[in-house]
Amino acid sequence: MNKSTKDHQGRTIQSVKITINILRELQENGPTGVTELAAELGHSKSTIHSHLATLKTEEMIVRDNGGYRVSLGILDLSSSAREQIGNYEVIKEEVNDLAEQTGEIAQFGVEEFGQVAYLYKMSGNQAVNTASRPGTYQPMFSTSLGKVILAFLSDERTEEIIQSTEFEALTPQTITSRDALYDELKQIKGQGYATDDEENIQGVRCVAAPVKNDETVLGAISITGPSSRFTNERLHYEFSDLVKNAANIIELNTKFS
């Protein structure tokens, strides 16, 4: 979706890329052997084995069920990453409260690499399933989290992201042009929240509000659910008020913590 980081990454180290691809493969597929990894990644078994041996020495992977899987040591890295984003405990509490109050999915996301990175997600008792989970990325132009962050980023960063975005029609409702996105961002900035009207997943609507620290956007908080329950009235009044109130609580706790 977004090619800015790939176009401007500069010189890269192939061995590091192989290691990262191995970790991603293990994350996706669970315990996997050397032969399977070599075939999937297109490298020799000796190359894969050397990388696995290094990862095992560094306690990033463990042997399991005849293959290798990521170790629990990865949790320490992920926990550290979460704690660097604003006031994580307050974010978690507000997301949990939204999910419990509405019965739907509540999420918090930040901008990374020109995309929405999901920091925390909680499902209420009547939530529908979505593919997002903490640590995954979604496009900014098709999600309420992404659009509301874009609207309140600095003009320079917003422009950089939009100009490097490759638009794709994920559903018939997806924004597919820069001009249309610019127009919607103006509206979002005026009303203080953004919506996703079946733009990322058919039949699913979302509403999100930005979380700011003075003029800096820390991220955004959202509620997601089926269009049958997310009527226009609930989306633009009830749910938009809920996410704005939750965002305000996070902002106040972040500023005075």
Question: Could you say which overall geometry the principal axes of the C-alpha atoms support?
Answer: globular
Give the strand order, joined by hyphens, for the main sheet: 5-4-3-8-7-6
In which range does the helix fraction lie? 40-55%
CATH C-level label of the largest domain: Alpha Beta
- If helices are DSSP runs of H or I spanning 4 or more residues, what is the number of helices? 10
- Alpha carbon gyration radius: 20 Å
Overall tally of domains: 2
What is the name of the CATH topology of the largest domain? Beta-Lactamase
Distance between the termini: 36 Å
CATH architecture of the largest domain: 2-Layer Sandwich
Strand tally is 8
Main β sheet profile: 6 strands, antiparallel
- CATH evolutionary superfamily of the largest domain: GAF domain
Average pLDDT level: 89
Q: Are there runs of 5+ residues with pLDDT below 50, and where?
A: 3-8
H and E order: HHHHEEHHEEEHHHEEEH
Describe, in plain words, how this protein is organized in 3D:
The chain is α+β, with helices and mostly antiparallel strands and 257 residues long. The chain has two domains: 4-71, Winged helix-like DNA-binding domain superfamily/Winged helix DNA-binding domain (Arc Repressor Mutant, subunit A, Orthogonal Bundle); 85-255, Beta-Lactamase (2-Layer Sandwich). Helices cover 48% and strands 20% of the residues. The strands form two sheets. A six-stranded antiparallel sheet has the order 5-4-3-8-7-6, with helices on both faces. The protein has a two-stranded antiparallel sheet with strand order 1-2. The longest helix is centred in the last third of the chain and has 24 residues, at 232-255. The protein is globular, with a radius of gyration of 20 Å.
